C-alpha cells in the first residue's frame, strides 16, 4: 500500500520552487528569558541574531560533535528555535538536560 502526496501539498511545493525556493523567515525569540534560564550560556545566547533561522541552527549543529559543550550549545539553539516564544520551552529543555544523565 503506498500513500499519495495530497494535491494541495504538491501545489504548494511547486509554487515554492517556482518562486526560487525562498528561505523560511526567521522567528523572534525571547533572548532575555533564555539568558535568565541559562546564565552559564550567556555568551552563546548574546551572539545569536534577533531572528533565529534554519541556517543559524544548522551552523550551531555543525559544531555539535566537537565537544560535549558544543553539543549542549547546539541542542539549546535548536530548542530556542523550535520553541520560539512558547513559555514552557525553557522548562522542557532544562528537564531534558537535568533528567538525562548523558544529556549534558
Average pLDDT metric:
92
List the secondary-structure elements in sequence, H or E.
HEHHEHHH
Radius of gyration: 17 Å
Contiguous helical run count: 6
Q: Beta fraction of the residues?
A: under 5%
Using the alpha-carbon principal axes, give the shape: elongated
Separation of termini?
42 Å
Oligomer: single chain
Helix content: 55-70%
Taking strands numbered 1, 2, ... along the chain, how are they ordered across the largest sheet?
1-2
Biggest sheet, open or closed, and with what strands and sense? 2 strands, antiparallel
- Counting helices, strands and paired strands, the structural category is mainly alpha
| Count of individual beta strands | 2
Q: Helices, strands, pairings?
A:
Elements: H1 7-18, E1 27-28, H2 31-37, H3 42-46, E2 51-52, H4 54-62, H5 68-83, H6 89-99
Antiparallel strand pairs: 1-2
Describe this structure in words.
With 104 residues, this protein is mainly alpha-helical. It contains 6 helices and 2 strands. The mean pLDDT is 92.
Amino acid at each position: 500500500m503506498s500513500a499519495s502526496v495530497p494535491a494541495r501539498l504538491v501545489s504548494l511545493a511547486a509554487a515554492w520552487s517556482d518562486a526560487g525556493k525562498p528561505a523560511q523567515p526567521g522567528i523572534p525569540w525571547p533572548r532575555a528569558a533564555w539568558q535568565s534560564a541559562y546564565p552559564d550560556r550567556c555568551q552563546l545566547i548574546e551572539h545569536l541574531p534577533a531572528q533565529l533561522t534554519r541556517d543559524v541552527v544548522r551552523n550551531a549543529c555543525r559544531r555539535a560533535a566537537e565537544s560535549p559543550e558544543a553539543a549542549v550549545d547546539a541542542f539549546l539553539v535548536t530548542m530556542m528555535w523550535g520553541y520560539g516564544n512558547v513559555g514552557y520551552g525553557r522548562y522542557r529543555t532544562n528537564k531534558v538536560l537535568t533528567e538525562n544523565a548523558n544529556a549534558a
